[in-house]
Design goal:
By secondary structure, this protein is of the alpha/beta class. It is about 35% helix and about 15% strand. It has 7 helices and 7 strands; from the N terminus they run βαβαβαβαββααβα. Helix 4 (about 110-125) links the parallel strand 4 and strand 5. The structure holds zinc ion. Zinc ion (ZN) binds near residues 10 and 111. Zinc ion binds near residues 9, 10 and 111. InterPro entries: Bacillithiol_biosynth_BshB1, GlcNAc_PI_deacetylase-related, LmbE-like_dom_sf. This is Bacillithiol biosynthesis deacetylase BshB1.
């Protein structure tokens, strides 16, 4: 059983987009897990074995209790009936009240499809007649993290004290990043020498919007229910 479960299409998606929030929730005493839909085997760099080891190291740095892979095909994540059953099984197994998933629009179809697949599965997991031999379960809240497609955030989580740990988890995916000792490796978007700076700049930009050094943007559907605006915003 977990309190929080984050889903990513590829083994480094969750740390780059939500690593700060996951560290914060772990430090708040919550049981946090990560599910990667693929092993990232289409990636230009790193073998699936290397990427799995890196993903486990990153999970340890963030303090996640569980990191699983559903072994869906990289580059071909689809919102099919079979895929939804896989996700429903995972949700019913871990019963997380909060799930953190990609926004459903992105130029990378795996990210967009992961957003749609997990969102729909979260609803369907609550239907008794979808039989997986497990108790039905529906998360209380779904929030979406930002991949490539920009959206107006519903809220931004300040991550100043978690930024270094988040970046350490990102750097655990060493096969994906620029290595001065291996200049002949094929280049990818994230293997450019400046990529980690760009990632930090994005967190810096969203942090500045809420008076923090670093922040992560999130989107939620629906309207926030707030009983005491004073307690939420005006406590000194
Ligand atoms: Zn990705």
């Amino acid at each position: 059983m977990l309190d929080v479960l984050a889903f990513g299409a590829h083994p480094d998606d969750v740390e780059m987009t939500s690593g700060g929030l996951l560290c914060r929730l772990v430090d708040a005493g919550l049981a946090v897990g990560i599910i990667d839909l693929t092993r990232g085997e289409l990636g230009t760099r790193g073998t699936p074995e290397v990427r799995t080891k890196e993903a486990q190291a990153a999970a340890r740095i963030m303090g996640a209790r569980v990191r699983e892979c559903l072994d869906m095909p990289d580059g071909a994540v689809r919102n099919t009936a079979e895929a939804r059953i896989e996700v429903i099984r995972a949700l019913r197994k871990y019963r997380p009240r909060l799930i953190i998933i990609p926004y459903w629009e992105c130029e990378h179809p795996d990210h967009a499809n992961t957003g749609r697949l997990v969102k729909e599965s979260a609803y369907l997991a609550g239907l008794k007649k979808i039989d997986t031999g497990q108790e039905r379960f529906r998360p209380a809240r779904v929030i979406h993290y930002m991949t490539h497609h920009r959206f107006e955030p519903s809220f931004i989580v300040p991550i100043d004290e978690y930024f270094e740990r988040k970046m350490e988890a990102v750097r655990a995916h060493a096969s994906q990043f620029y290595r001065p000792d291996a200049p002949d490796e094929d280049e990818t978007r994230i293997s450019q020498p400046g990529f980690l700076d760009l990632l930090a700049l994005r967190d810096r930009t969203y942090g500045a919007m809420v008076g923090a050094m670093y922040g992560e943007p999130y989107f939620m559907r629906g309207i926030l229910r707030i009983e005491n605006p004073f307690a939420l915003w005006c406590r000194t």
